[in-house]
Amino acid sequence: xxxxxxxxxxxxxxxxxxxxxxxxxxxxxxxxxxxxxxxxxxxxxxxxxxxxxxxxxxxxxxxxxxxxxxxxxxxxxxxxxxxxxxxxxxxxxxxxxxxxxxxxxxxxxxxxxxxxxxxxxxxxxxxxxxxxxxxxxxxxxxxxxxxxxxxxxxxxxxxxxxxxxxxxxxxxxxxxxxxxxxxxxxxxxxxxxxxxxxxxxxxxxxxxxxxxxxxxxxxxxxxxxxxxxxxxxxxxxxxxxxxxxxxxx
Length: 249
Description:
Helix content: 40-55%
CATH class of the largest domain: Alpha Beta
Number of domains: 2
Order of helices and strands: HEHEEEHHEHHHHHHH
């Protein structure tokens, strides 16, 4: 499973302050949200913050994402988050559907109410595209080390299960607890690799069938999401102090 949308290092005090003071939504992700946690599982936190509109008025823009301030914490600025989610980025879509919400204000509630607007048939390509990338890495592990990274194989299967189910139902559920024991057996390396790949093949075939009749729309509702973003920016601008102009000589 690919990591968050990393870019230039934004782990500065300014970025951390934005996360501390302007987070509108935060949740727990990773194995705990997927129903696959074990005793040694980390607690991965993801969030969305709204940079005050006034910070966009100068030459130096606020960061689009921030690592930290806590360990295993990563947050996106609202606009970047919406942009990636509209592209059906699995990390962002799953973040919106975490069953483990830790913080939510009025803006965050409206963001969650928009979850359906981000979903489209593009999930078929993005979810399975990420799965294909992960499979290539696993096959490389087998060639180089004689065995795959079984934890990554488990999460590849989990992603394919989510893809199949969202194409079938039109709703994204990230908790795969009903498959927990079988998936954890994969993680422990107890399932032969050929059985793992056979399971992958069956999931792909099921997704092919589901995609032909999926209730998901062909495209996300970009206009609805953009209207939300503009309203958030306007509300922030209205509450901001008027910036002082530098005096001319």
